[in-house]
Amino acid sequence: MEDRARTLTRAAELRAYFEAAGARPVETPVLQPAELLLDLYGEDIRGRAYVTSDALRGEQMLRPDFTVPVVQMHMREGAEPARYTYAGEVFRRQEHDPDRANEFVQVGYEVFDRADAAAADAEVFTRIAGALSGLPLRAATGDIGILKAAVAGLQTTAARKAALMRHIWRPRRFRALLDRYAGRAAVPPARAALLAAADPMAEAGPVIGRRSGAEIVRRIEALRADAAAAPVSDHELLGLETLLAVRETLPFALERLRDVAVDLPQITPAVDLLEARMGALADRGVDVDSLEFEASYGRTSMEYYDGFVFGFYAEGRADLPPVATGGRYDALTRALGDGAEIPAVGGVLRPGLMLALQETGQ
Predict the structure, then answer these.
(1) Helix, coil or strand: residue 178
(2) 98 within domain boundaries
(3) Residue 1 has pLDDT above 50, yes or no
(4) Of residues 247 and 45, which shows the higher confidence score?
(5) Do 74 and 84 form a contact (C-beta atoms < 8 A)?
(6) What are the two backbone dihedrals, phi and then psi, of residue 236, each rounded to the nearest 5 degrees?
(7) Do 104 and 215 lie in a common domain?
(8) How far apart are CA 168 and CA 182, in angstroms?
(9) Do residues 125 and 206 share a domain?
(10) Domain limits at 213?
(11) What DSSP letter does each residue of 302-336 carry, written as one string?
(12) CB-based contact 293:248 (threshold 8 Å)
């Protein structure tokens, strides 16, 4: 009980820190409607959410995060620009890592502002960094928007690009799809036989499961169309592989990404935004020359991030989850805005982990 009380006290202090920076404090219900939220959170949170059924309200879930309900609130009633802060418990199942807490306190800072995306990114990063001042932490940054732009501009079918976009968050599956679309992976014998059959359903048994016979036929037709499509070119594949391998301090990463943009010109606007963000961070006193950037960073986090992403990690404590994370989620506001949208970026901290690091000095 003492640890919880101290964590809540620290959370209140952090929220006051963000309020002093101009954020409006908000609350969201602990119990949230499950159907829409589970789609927005992505596979990782879907597998870790506590879901229950209510006779009147349908499926409900214990709040796994604040960002989605805060976006819902803002798109329903918020003015522009807006800054919000919040503090409270979130809940996530941890079957694969029982040493991690399944209930913990989160404090956040969210900015909705369409004036200058680079400046808003830098504002959120530096506010979070300021709240963590004095702790032995390492900062990491990335940009999901660059990878999304690279995929969107590939010279291949819309279906292939949609599949790659869907699996950006699952690096192994993404790599397997790339190899398949580039013709590097052999077609499994069972699939080859299926595609070669004049009527794949002729010898099929009774339809079992949720898919109808018509749905199965459409799926086979999609597989045939994919098999007939030209492979992703070697120069595009090499460009993607080079992009995914970028892991440098920010200025060197920018230089390498400019080189990649020669082969993948579709990433140029996203790389321009990265350069603008680097300038905005420097203007706010961040040592960008030593700030880490990894093109693949953030690909196992919340699936609603679509631009700048960042995290703060305890030095020498790989066993601990990140102490703070955040990123840009413009597409989420489109999904929840019924046609309206506003650029948005935010970050969250875990005051319990902050206290633990303070006490141990690690």
Answers:
(1) helix
(2) yes
(3) no
(4) 247
(5) yes
(6) -70, -40
(7) no
(8) 17
(9) no
(10) 156-232
(11) -TT--SEEEEEEETT-TTSPPSEEEEE-HHHHHHH
(12) yes
